[in-house]
Amino acid sequence: MLPLLLLSLLWGGSLQEERGYWLQVQESVTVQACLGVHVPCSFSYPWSSWYSYGEPFIYWFREGDDIHRSDPVATDNPGRRVKPETQGRFHLLGDPRKKSCSLNIRHARMSDTGVYFFRVEGGDVEYSYTDKKLNLQVTAPTEKPDIHFLEALESGRPTKLTCRLSLVCDGGRVFSFSWAGDALGAMDPETLHSSVLTFTPRPQDHGTNLTCRVNLPGDQVTMERTIRLNVSYAPWNLSINLSFRNVTALKTLQNSSSLLISESQALQLLCVADSNPPAQLSWFGASPALNATRISSTKILELPGFGAAEREFTCRAQNPLGSQNTSLSLSVVWKPASLTGVVCGALAGAGAMALLSLCVCLVSFCIVKARRKQAARRPAGADGEDPVMGIVAWGSRQKPWPDGPPDQTSSPAEDAPPSGEQQELHYASLSFHGMKSREPLDQEATNITEYSEIKTS
Prior knowledge:
The chain is α+β, with helices and mostly antiparallel strands.
């Protein structure tokens, strides 16, 4: 029993063909969305039925649909309606009397992807050819939209851009457009959903990406084109890179900077400008507005060293859209007072002054200390003599001292100056004649102070 069952399964297709039912169709077909495809197909039906009942009706159904309750995707039966989503797009071609079941598909949609089977109905015969089915695959379009410029992009000038797609889908669907890119960050999002875009480029937009996207409603298919913006703009962001003795760019200077250098210092000035198209760079000995002489037509200016002076150098960047200048003022320090020598000399001078002040303080301290020791050894009773410096201090007396002892009977009032009378100041000059240093004879001799003539005035 089992061998007979296996034999019937293996010969099932052949038995169908022997009975007069067979179908030839391409089992796998791929088409891009919005495009069309033609699927050749031929079939056979028993001749006896054809002759007895006339020409049958043919149908294409989607796999899984009920052949009695569901609408076919295509049929030649005028009494049956087709699915609304395939109406006008799926068409039967050829004459069934010539065994043709070919199917033509236009404006394919992503939703058309699926498996389909063929069916014949006529008289007392109804047959579905399920042994061979059509597998339809609809893919996203490979075509991309194009972005057209009405004019070249220039910084500060409004420009219109148009996104176009040559692909045509069925008239029931309308493409939706959208724009994206860093250059559009400040724009109103409502203006970014149109096939035409108007925006004003900036210098910083040069080299950024701009994308146009086209969506197919209902199919979740997106086609896009991305371009790199080429924005023309005048020179800006001008700067000078400075290097010492071929050392790479130790300092970047901008906006009329100044620098203090040595007269023997070798410099290299590199002018850098941001512009599109690239700017022509030139160097001048002063501001170009003053009709200064051009000293270089390259971006690098070599300064091997120059004499004592204050020099100004100006770099000018210029292209067809405009120009920009930046200057560098060099204050030159000449020899021998180079910048290093000035600092070292100032430090050395300050150190010498500090040492000299210390020496003076030490000498003064030694003198004062010696005087105080000498005054301590001298007998007391010397009025008017400074115990430290050994000099006579003169008071404001009107009369000189008498030779004899003072009168005990005199009152202090007699010595006092009259009321309202200003006291006189007496000065003395000291002169030491022929003073020679000598060695003391003994310990007592060291306490003897020598005096010389004192003149008063």
